[in-house]
Design a protein that fits this description.
This is Hydroxyatrazine ethylaminohydrolase. Keywords: Hydrolase. GO terms for molecular function: hydrolase activity, acting on carbon-nitrogen (but not peptide) bonds. Belongs to the metallo-dependent hydrolases superfamily. ATZ/TRZ family. This protein is α/β, with parallel strands linked by helices. The protein folds into 2 domains: 3-63 and 382-438, Urease, subunit C, domain 1 (Roll); 65-375, TIM Barrel (Alpha-Beta Barrel), CATH 3.20.20.140. The protein is 34% helix and 20% strand. It is built from 14 helices and 17 strands. Strands 1, 2, 3, 4, 5, 14, 15, 16 and 17 form a 9-stranded mixed β-sheet that branches. Strands 6-7-8-9 form a 4-stranded parallel β-sheet. It has a 4-stranded parallel β-sheet with strand order 10-11-12-13. α11 (336-349) crosses α12 (361-375). The radius of gyration is 21 Å and the shape is globular.
Length: 459
């Protein structure tokens, strides 16, 4: 079983359960999928057979990032002036974007997944959750199967959020009929995917999350049945909450979204919501009391122009917090590393308007690592310590970019930002990206195949 000895790391961000700390000038040893040891001068004579020694001089080694919200399929609508939020109303934008999504083919879903995950890996993400709620009828039901295929090609640890929409546009949703499913269809495919792919064991590379798109676009029964299935099968629950829909939910059901979800049982330690920027402090306290987590997606704030999510209040109330890229409809990149910097800077920008102080820069790194692991129900990823998964990335800091910054590795990503790909990304003990290349893959071929699939989309 192959292992690696990262020799003479300049700094390793270690967390043995009491919070992150920096260990300087140490070695890190892996064996198979796990970290074996972190310490000074690990003896070369005692290494397991097959261990590869890697000179890590100058490297800062961090726990792999955990993405907790994305829409991979939207990668084919990036950087398009005709879909610019600033030039269209929300209704105009939805009317233009959903017909494009409804024309995507099965191959498009595969290649958008490769595209998103490849960018994530380059920037230190080792576990990706995707909320795939787009199921055009002509594309069939095996779209998430193709996502698992893409994850295996790249070596990504992948949590698939099987989303879906059941409420027709004629009854108040924003979803075209070509993308609708019945509740029975949705639940049946969730069950199929859990049976086919979900692995609850240690170092699992494949898990499934039951994730109806959002309350505003689904029948009540869809959420009730989602809770029943997820609790029966022991998987996580996810949906969009608190991104402007609460007044609509109140008009329909007599209560805002947080109370509506709680009434349906769609809340608790096995549940996390995306966004939550419009929620009141009282609603945040209710989420904290139930154990419900939140995936904060900072970069859509710039593009959509919504208010800045009150992360200081969320932390003060004890909510579990993770970070997500979100899809290209509201964020044109899949760089979770950049989201750490964006999240911190946005909170600094609005600090004078907050009741609670801005969390420390280190906390934003924690949201993207151990916080994300908590949202996904994982205890084997999100931090570096013996026995944990060997999910990590390394930055060679012997560059002009880092002069004056190297004294504080814990704050580096949030305060300074990392403006280039990692020097190495390891997932489950396997190096998947190093020296500007994907291990064993031809990036030019991946690019050409994705571009060919993109060319089939009619805009």
């Amino acid at each position: 079983m192959t292992g690696y000895l990262l020799k003479n790391c300049a700094a390793v961000i270690v967390d043995e359960g009491n919070g992150p700390s920096v260990r300087r000038n140490v070695d890190l040893l892996t064996k198979g999928p796990a970290i074996q040891a972190i310490g000074e001068n690990l003896s070369l004579n005692l290494l397991p057979e097959g261990t590869v020694v890697q000179d890590a001089s100058g490297w800062f080694v961090y726990p792999g990032l955990v993405n907790t919200h994305h829409h991979f399929f939207q990668c084919f609508v990036r950087n398009r002036a005709d879909l610019d939020w600033t030039k269209l109303s929300v209704i105009e934008w939805l009317d233009r974007i959903y017909p494009i999504f409804s024309r995507l083919t099965e191959d498009c879903f595969y290649h958008t997944s490769v595209t998103a995950m490849a960018e994530m890996i380059k920037h230190g993400c080792t576990t990706a959750f995707d909320h795939q709620y787009c199921f055009p009828r002509h594309a069939g039901k095996r779209l998430i199967d193709r996502q698992f295929e893409a994850a295996e090609v790249l070596g990504m640890r992948f949590h698939a959020g099987r989303g879906g929409n059941t409420l027709p546009k004629s009854e108040g949703s924003t979803i075209p009929d070509a993308m609708l499913e019945t509740t029975d269809e949705f639940i049946a495919d969730c069950a199929r995917l859990i049976d086919s792919y979900h692995d609850a064991g240690s170092f699992s590379m494949r898990q499934v999350v039951v994730a109806p798109c959002q309350p505003v676009n689904c029948y009540r029964e869809t959420f009730v049945e989602s809770v029943s299935l997820a609790r029966d099968r022991g998987v996580q629950l996810h949906t969009h909450v608190g991104e402007g829909e609460s007044p609509v939910i109140k008009a329909r059901h007599g209560m805002r979204t947080v109370d509506y979800c709680a009434e349906l049982g769609f809340a608790g330690p096995d549940t996390f919501y995306a966004h939550c920027w419009e929620l009141t402090h009282d609603e945040l306290r209710k989420m904290a009391a139930s154990g419900t987590g939140v995936s904060h997606c900072p970069e859509p704030v710039y593009l959509v122009g919504a208010e800045v999510t009150d992360i200081p209040a969320m932390q003060a109330f004890g909510l579990r917090i993770g970070l997500g890229c979100d899809g290209a409809a509201s964020n044109d990149n899949s760089n979770l590393m950049h989201c750490i910097h964006s999240a911190y800077m946005l909170q600094c920008l609005t600090a004078s308007t907050r009741v609670h102080p801005v969390p420390a820069p280190l906390d934003f790194l924690k949201y993207a690592t151990n916080g994300g692991a908590s949202l996904l129900g994982r205890t084997d990823i999100g931090r570096l310590a013996p026995g944990m998964a060997a999910d990590l990335f390394a930055i060679d800091t012997r560059r002009m970019d880092y002069v004056g910054t190297r004294h504080d590795p814990l704050s580096l990503i949030a305060k300074v930002g990392i403006g280039m790909p990692t020097d190495m990304t390891m997932i489950n003990g396997r190096i998947v990206w190093q020296g500007g290349e994907f291990t064993g893959l031809d990036e030019a071929a991946l690019f050409a195949a994705a571009e060919a699939a993109l060319a089939t989309v009619e805009f």
